[in-house]
Description:
Mean pLDDT: 85
Amino acid sequence: MSRTRTALALGTAAAGAIALASVTASAAPLPVAGSTTVTPAGHDFKATLSGKATLKAGSVTVTCTVSVSVSTGTVPAAPGNSNPAGPVSSPISPPTYSSCTSSMPGVTPTVTTSGAWAVTMQDGAPITATMTVPVGGLVLKTTGLASCTVTAAPTAAASVGGTWVNGAPSSLTFANASVPVKVTGGFGCPTSATASVFNAVYKVADTTDPAQQITVGP
């Protein structure tokens, strides 16, 4: 290779290295999770459905409107209720859903839940709350004109994103949250759907001391 071609190749390589270094240097670092503390430490809580919960798979929407749709849990005891560099997680009982109706005429849905559920809170603006659905932890079945089975988190545990607002009582909201599903069945079943849209609002009360509130902070 001639001196000219060698110099050109080295120059091109150097320019490429400089460009790569520039891109690498300008790339924004991943955000670091801030501290989270959930109080009161060690207190039991109850999350009660407020209004209605909806689960939509394909063109089919199931609506459950029962105030006894409840999940219970416990804030971790100190120091586990505080994390200086991330979220705090609490195991919860599987929420229950009943008095459900379907957008499909002549179809009656039932929802069963099972397994080890959890909710994880991360302080921020807004405060985020992630509900963990275990594998197959929610199964919706319909009877009548269409016999369908919708299984949430069919192959792996699923994280369902929501938001938390401190208050009296505090609230946990899931707005158009995506949940992976598998749908089986015959005519009328949305078998091509691989995700469901979940909407629900829960009011969270301290059951150890009703005069206090479950609160998420830094």
